[in-house]
Each structure stands twice: as C-alpha cells, then as structure tokens.
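Justification of resources, computational component.

The compute hours requested in this renewal are based largely on the per-chain cost of generating structure records like the one below. Each record pairs the submitted sequence with a full structure-token output. That output is archived, and it is also reused by downstream analysis tasks.
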Amino acid sequence: MSIVERALKRLQAEATTTRNRPVFGRVVEAPLSSAAPTRVISIDQDALRMAGLLAPKHQEREIASQYRQIKRPLLAAAMGKGQEHVASERLIMVASALPGEGKTFTAINLAFSMAFEKDLQVVLVDGDVAKPQISKMFGVSTEKGLLDAVTDPAVQLETLILPTDVSNLSLLPAGTHSDHATELLASERMHEAMRWLLQRDGRRIFVFDSPPLLLSAEAPALAEIAGQIVVVVRAEHTEHHVVLAALQRLPEGSAPSLVLNQSTARGGTYYYYGYGAAEGSAATKDGGS
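The structure output for this chain reads:
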C-alpha cells in the first residue's frame, strides 16, 4: 500500500469513527446577515492532495495547465462562444463506465479549474446519490441536498447550495438517501429545478459527479438533463466493449467528450497527465467528442 493510499485510509477511518468530522472539509458558521449564508464549507486542500484528489505541489502547475485545456471547449459550449447558446450546456456531467476510473478526481479538478475563471460561479454537485463520495469527503453527507429538493417542492434548491472558502466554488450535496432516487432524478420536478437554477444566474456552471454508467440507473437519468457529458476512461484497464456499452446508455444524439485517465503514452494531439489515488492516479487525455 502506497503512502498516499495509507493516508487516504487513515483519513477515511477518522471520518467514520468521529461524528461530524469531515475528511477534506468542515462546515463553519459565517456571520449572520440578510445577504450572507450562515454555512461555508472550509476545504482542506492539503488533505485533498494527500488523498491524491488534487495535484501535489510539485505537479500543481503542470496539471493546472492540463485542466485548462480540458475545460476550454466545455466552457466555450457552456457560455455559447462561437455558437448558439444552449443553457443546459452549463450542466456538465462527469461519468465513467465503472468505478475506479477517476471520475470523482476529474470532477473535482475540473470544478477547481473552472472556479479560476473570473466571470463564472461553479457548483460541484454530488450526483452519485447512491454512493455520495463527494458529500462524505467535504463533510456534508448529513446536509440536505439535491434529492431533498426534488422530493419536496417546498424545498428551494438554491438554499441548499453551500459556498466554500475557494473563490467562485460552491457545493451541492447529494441529500437524503432515497430508494426512489432514479425516479426522482428522472422526474419533471428535477428538470424544472435545473431550469430554474439555470435561469437564476447565467454565470453558473454545474459540474455533476455521476454514478458509473453501467452500475446504476441514476446515471442515465442524470444524462437526460446534462447539456454536456464527460466520460472518464482508465487507460489500459477499461476494455473497449465496456466503453461502448457505457456510451450506449447515454441519450440518443449525445456527443460525449472522453478523458483517458492514467495514460502513460506520449504523443498525439492532447495528452494530459494528472495525479490521483482515490480512484487511481490520473493521467488524462482528451478524447474529443
């Protein structure tokens, strides 16, 4: 077991044995006012690096450059640059065929990279409602979130989006577990909630961490609302027929972007080398659409 894996195991063990003690973040109280939220997520970026979910210091500049290249076409589509603007393209789903391919690493790093944009607000959404890893990582697994707003029309989704101490980055937890999560995500209420959020603020980008496409019914339901879909594929691990089977679970007419994770090959047009241990060290290649 590597040093990073041991660190992740230790941090996760501490989180499960100590109530309300998050691994990578903590909820802190903000000063009360009519304009300011009362809860802010304080993100422990050093812990994220230890767990392999953010780049280590010595690779930070290199990987930041890689994610700038990955995000540019996604942002161009989301903000309508060079083409007719479609609001739903600000809903970006990050998925994979199977677990362990790096989708959560990719979602987190993509959201962090997009948050550097000066004119955008980024919301990282825990859409993996069956196994809400991001909610657990940031210590908000007991907070209301996406499923609560879709279950109860009286709950305003906007009030569940939690700001973080990372500039321009907010978090939407998965919310309360439901045995009917697939039906909730596929409901008209879900579509209405997303349309309302998109209309409320044209500067917002939503990055969804999705369940694996081949192991859940929730992922295809999320794909129905996503304007853009990024599928993470683990190099020299995921078999070709598995990738094809996953892509077939996407809505007809989808044009997903592919990110090849853990690639060690060089050459070609766009190769991106990253880092990650929670779902595998990430070396990514943009596969286009």
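Residues 60-78 form the longest helix (19 residues). The domain at 3-28+38-286 is CATH 3.40.50.300 (Rossmann fold).
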